[in-house]
Amino acid sequence: MGATASASVGRADALVGDLERAEVEVLYDDREETAGVKFADADLVGIPFRATVSKRTLKEDQVELKPRSASEAEFIPRKIATERIAGAVRRALA
Protein backbone atom coordinates (compact mmCIF):
# COMPACT_ATOMS: atom_id res chain seq x y z
CA MET A 1 0.00 0.00 0.00
CA GLY A 2 1.41 3.38 -0.98
CA ALA A 3 1.68 6.41 1.28
CA THR A 4 -1.40 8.08 -0.21
CA ALA A 5 -3.49 4.92 0.09
CA SER A 6 -2.33 4.48 3.67
CA ALA A 7 -3.22 8.11 4.46
CA SER A 8 -6.66 7.64 2.87
CA VAL A 9 -7.32 4.53 4.95
CA GLY A 10 -6.19 6.32 8.11
CA ARG A 11 -8.43 9.30 7.40
CA ALA A 12 -11.37 7.02 6.56
CA ASP A 13 -10.82 5.00 9.76
CA ALA A 14 -10.85 8.22 11.78
CA LEU A 15 -14.04 9.43 10.09
CA VAL A 16 -15.77 6.09 10.71
CA GLY A 17 -14.78 6.24 14.38
CA ASP A 18 -16.01 9.82 14.72
CA LEU A 19 -19.34 8.97 13.05
CA GLU A 20 -19.84 5.90 15.21
CA ARG A 21 -19.17 7.98 18.35
CA ALA A 22 -21.83 10.38 17.02
CA GLU A 23 -24.17 7.35 16.88
CA VAL A 24 -24.33 7.26 13.08
CA GLU A 25 -24.55 3.79 11.58
CA VAL A 26 -21.72 3.34 9.07
CA LEU A 27 -21.07 0.80 6.33
CA TYR A 28 -17.33 1.01 5.62
CA ASP A 29 -16.39 -0.50 2.27
CA ASP A 30 -12.71 -1.31 2.55
CA ARG A 31 -12.66 -3.99 -0.14
CA GLU A 32 -9.87 -4.06 -2.70
CA GLU A 33 -12.20 -2.90 -5.50
CA THR A 34 -12.28 0.19 -7.68
CA ALA A 35 -14.20 3.21 -6.45
CA GLY A 36 -16.72 2.70 -9.27
CA VAL A 37 -17.51 -0.85 -8.13
CA LYS A 38 -17.91 0.31 -4.54
CA PHE A 39 -20.16 3.22 -5.55
CA ALA A 40 -22.35 0.96 -7.73
CA ASP A 41 -22.69 -1.57 -4.91
CA ALA A 42 -23.64 1.16 -2.43
CA ASP A 43 -26.37 2.30 -4.83
CA LEU A 44 -27.63 -1.28 -5.25
CA VAL A 45 -27.84 -1.75 -1.49
CA GLY A 46 -29.59 1.62 -1.12
CA ILE A 47 -27.06 3.43 1.05
CA PRO A 48 -28.54 6.96 1.43
CA PHE A 49 -25.26 8.88 1.84
CA ARG A 50 -21.76 8.24 0.56
CA ALA A 51 -18.77 9.82 2.29
CA THR A 52 -15.55 9.41 0.33
CA VAL A 53 -11.94 9.93 1.36
CA SER A 54 -9.56 9.94 -1.60
CA LYS A 55 -6.24 11.27 -2.82
CA ARG A 56 -8.05 14.40 -4.00
CA THR A 57 -9.92 15.01 -0.73
CA LEU A 58 -6.77 14.36 1.31
CA LYS A 59 -4.93 17.02 -0.67
CA GLU A 60 -7.69 19.56 0.02
CA ASP A 61 -8.31 18.37 3.63
CA GLN A 62 -11.92 17.58 2.77
CA VAL A 63 -14.44 14.75 2.70
CA GLU A 64 -16.72 14.19 -0.28
CA LEU A 65 -20.39 13.75 0.68
CA LYS A 66 -22.96 12.60 -1.85
CA PRO A 67 -26.57 11.93 -0.94
CA ARG A 68 -27.98 9.08 -3.04
CA SER A 69 -30.79 11.40 -4.17
CA ALA A 70 -28.39 14.10 -5.45
CA SER A 71 -26.61 14.23 -8.77
CA GLU A 72 -23.64 16.16 -7.40
CA ALA A 73 -21.38 15.62 -4.42
CA GLU A 74 -20.38 18.32 -1.97
CA PHE A 75 -16.90 18.76 -0.57
CA ILE A 76 -16.85 19.41 3.16
CA PRO A 77 -13.88 20.61 5.21
CA ARG A 78 -12.62 17.63 7.21
CA LYS A 79 -12.87 19.43 10.54
CA ILE A 80 -16.68 19.73 10.22
CA ALA A 81 -17.35 16.54 8.23
CA THR A 82 -18.61 14.46 11.15
CA GLU A 83 -21.02 17.16 12.24
CA ARG A 84 -22.34 17.74 8.70
CA ILE A 85 -22.71 14.06 7.87
CA ALA A 86 -24.38 13.24 11.19
CA GLY A 87 -26.77 16.17 10.71
CA ALA A 88 -27.68 15.06 7.19
CA VAL A 89 -28.37 11.52 8.39
CA ARG A 90 -30.50 12.73 11.31
CA ARG A 91 -32.54 15.02 9.05
CA ALA A 92 -33.13 12.15 6.63
CA LEU A 93 -34.36 9.92 9.47
CA ALA A 94 -36.65 12.57 11.02
Structure described in brief:
The protein is an alpha+beta fold and 94 residues long. The protein is built from 4 helices and 3 strands.
Question: Main traits of this protein?
Answer:
94 residues; alpha+beta; Rossmann fold; 15% strand
Structural notes for this entry:
The chain has 94 residues and is α+β, with helices and mostly antiparallel strands. It has one domain: Anticodon-binding domain (Rossmann fold). Helices cover 55% and strands 15% of the residues. Strands 1-2-3 form a three-stranded antiparallel beta sheet. The longest helix has 19 residues. The chain is globular. It starts with a helix and ends with a helix.
Shape: globular
CATH topology: Rossmann fold
CATH fourth-tier homologous superfamily: Anticodon-binding domain
Sequence stretches where pLDDT stays below 50 over 5 or more residues: none
Question: Helices, strands, pairings?
Answer:
Blueprint: H1 3-21, H2 35-45, E1 49-52, H3 55-60, E2 62-67, E3 74-77, H4 78-93
Antiparallel strand pairs: 1-2, 2-3
